[in-house]
Amino acid sequence: MKILSWNCRGLRRRPVKEFIRSYVKLNFVNIIFLQETHVHEEIALSFISCLGKSWYGSAISSEGASGGFLLAWNNSVIKAQLICSASDALKIGFKELIGNGHTSILFDSWLFDVPLFWMPSFVNISLFDANLNVDCLIDNGSWNVAMLYDLFGVSLVETIFGIMLPRKPCDDDWVWWPDNKGDYF
């Protein structure tokens, strides 16, 4: 099995697309993982179809001029089934684990897809010190409920309660986490 993993720095450029197609064909690549595609999901998926009828895959759109992922496989060699889109899987199964609290409350995207300083008025940013980390919201291994309600209000507290706290000391991290049935997505 051969895998191509590459930060392609943009999938719109013709030389990049031609290089990938020829490299895959000449080297009998079975799986392609491209990072930094800089294109919307539909454009990345249309590129997969240019590889041939036996190629399948999924993609995540870029955010502006950065990001974007593509995962593709030759289904005549690798029998795989896409059970949900990549972006849906990330939204459902990927969770923040708050450990030592080095995650900044305002400047890291621990609660949303964007840092909190971009959030609307229901977040009481005036109460924040810009240098505060998430560990100040934790008291004896549990969320500090009173502080959460003061800072975030009722609308966000339930979301915050969904963020895992570790059973023993560890670093902040992103982890795959199952739903209440034990399924990952």
From TrEMBL:
Domain of life: Eukaryota
Gene3D superfamilies with a match to the protein in the record: Endonuclease/exonuclease/phosphatase
This protein's name: Endonuclease/exonuclease/phosphatase domain-containing protein
Taxonomic lineage from the root: Eukaryota, Viridiplantae, Streptophyta, Embryophyta, Tracheophyta
